[in-house]
Amino acid sequence: MSTTTTENDVQAWLVARIVAYGKKAAGDFSVDTDFSEIGLDSVYALTLCGDIEDEYDIEIDPEIMWDYSTIRTLAARLEELGA
């Protein structure tokens, strides 16, 4: 991924992935909605972690989904990690 990826870019990508999983429509949640409220269970969390690793070429621990449990906080952490 480009070195010019911003936190907003990561947020938009995460929203698109969650919508693609069929969990919610984009307007049904915000970047501050907890993943558990969106309906992301452990299976989807692992899937999302794999997608993040593929998209941004970084390695992450699946526990990141519980440590950073909203799109906003996860995107900020991913940007820190080089996404």
From TrEMBL:
Highest taxon listed in the record's lineage: Bacteria
InterPro entries xref list: ACP-like_sf (IPR036736), PKS_PP-bd (IPR020806), PP-bd_ACP (IPR009081)
PROSITE patterns: CARRIER (PS50075)
GO molecular function: phosphopantetheine binding
Coiled coil: none
Record flagged with keyword DNA-binding: no
Pfam families, per database record: PP-binding (PF00550)
Domain named Carrier: residues: 5-82
Keywords, alphabetical: Phosphopantetheine, Phosphoprotein
Name this polypeptide is given: Acyl carrier protein
